[in-house]
Each structure stands twice: as structure tokens, then as C-alpha cells.
């Protein structure tokens, strides 16, 4: 079976339609994207390096207005045709091929854009190839606990009323799995860590509205193509509020953010010692330490 014959978890054209529709809501709906872009920019600012050739995969860093070094040249690879964006090159193709030259970027960054990729391991390999030696890759994406409250409420409501359930919220990768993917893709010094952003709403429907406005509506290939039944929606909202509602009547929505950092391998980077290359054995070191303790 070839790559193109394999089942695809995400519907690429539906994902692009969601992103195009989201532009109609204006920038106010992108508050979460902006917040994470700002946090990603803070991490970049801690790196003592001048980045001049920058690749933005997904085009979601520019929304914050301050995501890149002032002297850097930014090329954006959007996930849909971006009108009026003169810096944008050809978008990511349907087969998730990155349309850039190998070894041309000293920084590749991606903000909340990689969670709906069918072949994430393959795209990470492409990103690594796009980097110059000792080039940096830094990304944020949604982690496995994202929207767990909404996921469980929708599943329970639809199962209770119809006897079955369609997938409504896409599965997200675990931070440990994402760290392993960095290693598999050949990145040096890979790091994966996470934090949690909790947003509160007065009603679950407002949360769903914001998800559509951010371009994060359901794009699963196996999704239902019918509108959700009203009784299912109302039951899901009731379950959500009953299980998670606070004393003030507001409900929380969890967004787990995973941050990935990796470098294109280079001889100048710190290298781990080879097994057996140590000058002092572990047993000798322990005996020496025990001897010192006995003398004291």
C-alpha cells in the first residue's frame, strides 16, 4: 500500500475550507492563536541566535505581530490559498509535501498548525531537511487533553440519545509521542514540553462558535456530514455544564499546548559520549565516594 492509499484521518480540503471560513470572523476570534504565538515568540527570544531565513509552516505566527526577529526574511507556507499575502509561497500540497528547498532555512517555526496533519512523521522529516546545519525548529500544537470536556460531553449525549456516536473532536497526540517523533525525524537535542491554557465560557455553544472562528471545526475524514441534532446538542450542553460548570455558572475549556524544539544536526553541537568512553568506571566512582564518607 502506498502513502496515498493509506487511510487519511484528516480531510485536507475540509481543513482548508474551515480555515478560509475562519478569516470571515476577523482577528478577534484568533485570541488563542495569538496567545500561543506570543508564548512561542518568547521562547524564540531566549535563543541567542540571529535568524535571517525563516520558514513559517501554517502561517499562524504573523497574527501576533511580533513573532519574528525584525531582520529576518519570512516565507510562509499556508495550508490554504492566502489572498493578498505577498510573502506566501505555494501552500502545503494535498499530499502534505513541503514546497521549499532543502537546507535553506535557519529557522522553521509553526504555531498551532501541525495537529491536523495525516503524516506528521513525514512532515517533520521534510522540515528537518529544510533547515541549514544547526538550524532550529520550534513549534506549538494541541496536545491530547485538549477539549476533553467537550469531547466527552458530545460522546455521552449522542450515545445516550441515538445509541451511537460520530467523531466530533479530533484525537490529539501525547507529548511523549511527539517527543519520540522528533527523534525519529532526525532532530538533534529534541525537547517536547507542554503547558495548559484554560478558557472559560458562559455556554458551550459559545466555545463551539470560537472553534469555528479559529478554523478548528471538525475536519475528520470519518465525520458525520449532517448537522448535529438539536436534542443531542442541548443534551451535550447540559452534560458539559453539569460536569464542569463552576459556581459562577461558567464552564472551562482545556487547551493543552505542546511545544517542540529540535535542531538540524551539526558537528558544532554538544555530543553524548559513546558507551565505554568514560575515563572512570561507575564502580570506581562509587567506591571512591563510599571511601570518602567512611573517613568523615
TrEMBL record:
One GO-annotated biological process of the protein: methylation
PANTHER family documented for this protein: ARGININE-HYDROXYLASE NDUFAF5, MITOCHONDRIAL
InterPro entries xrefs: Malonyl-ACP_OMT, SAM-dependent_MTases_sf
Protein name as catalogued: Methyltransferase family protein
Bilayer-crossing regions: none
Region (Disordered): 267-296
Keywords assigned by UniProt, alphabetized: Methyltransferase, Transferase
Superkingdom of origin organism: Bacteria
Signal peptide: none
Species, as recorded: Eilatimonas milleporae
Amino acid at each position: 500500500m502506498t502513502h496515498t492509499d493509506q487511510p487519511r484521518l484528516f480531510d485536507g480540503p475540509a481543513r482548508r475550507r474551515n480555515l478560509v471560513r475562519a478569516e470571515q470572523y476577523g482577528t478577534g476570534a484568533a485570541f488563542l492563536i495569538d496567545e500561543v504565538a506570543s508564548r512561542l515568540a518568547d521562547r524564540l527570544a531566549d535563543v541567542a541566535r540571529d535568524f535571517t531565513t525563516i520558514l513559517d509552516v501554517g502561517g499562524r505566527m504573523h497574527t501576533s505581530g511580533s513573532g519574528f526577529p525584525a531582520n529576518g526574511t519570512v516565507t510562509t507556507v499556508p495550508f490554504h490559498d492566502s489572498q493578498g499575502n505577498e510573502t506566501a509561497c505555494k501552500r502545503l500540497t494535498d499530499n502534505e509535501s513541503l514546497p521549499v528547498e532543502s537546507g535553506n532555512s535557519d529557522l522553521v517555526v509553526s504555531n498551532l498548525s501541525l495537529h491536523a496533519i495525516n503524516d506528521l512523521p513525514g512532515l517533520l522529516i521534510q522540515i528537518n531537511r529544510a533547515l541549514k546545519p544547526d538550524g532550529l525548529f520550534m513549534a506549538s500544537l494541541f496536545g491530547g487533553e485538549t477539549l476533553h470536556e467537550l469531547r466527552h460531553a458530545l460522546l455521552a449525549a449522542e450515545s445516550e440519545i441515538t445509541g451511537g456516536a460520530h467523531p466530533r473532536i479530533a484525537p490529539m497526540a501525547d507529548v511523549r509521542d511527539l517527543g519520540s517523533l522528533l527523534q525519529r525525524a532526525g532532530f538533534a537535542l529534541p525537547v517536547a514540553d507542554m503547558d495548559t491554557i484554560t478558557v472559560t465560557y458562559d455556554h458551550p455553544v459559545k466555545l463551539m462558535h470560537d472553534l469555528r472562528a479559529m478554523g478548528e471545526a471538525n475536519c475528520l475524514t470519518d465525520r458525520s456530514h449532517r448537522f448535529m441534532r438539536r436534542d443531542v446538542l442541548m443534551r451535550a450542553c447540559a452534560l458539559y455544564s453539569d460536569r464542569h460548570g463552576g459556581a459562577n455558572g461558567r464552564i472551562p475549556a482545556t487547551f493543552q499546548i505542546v511545544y517542540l524544539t529540535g535542531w538540524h544536526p551539526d558537528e558544532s553541537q554538544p555530543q553524548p559520549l559513546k558507551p565505554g568512553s568514560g575515563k572512570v568506571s561507575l564502580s570506581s566512582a562509587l567506591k571512591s565516594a563510599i571511601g570518602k564518607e567512611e573517613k568523615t
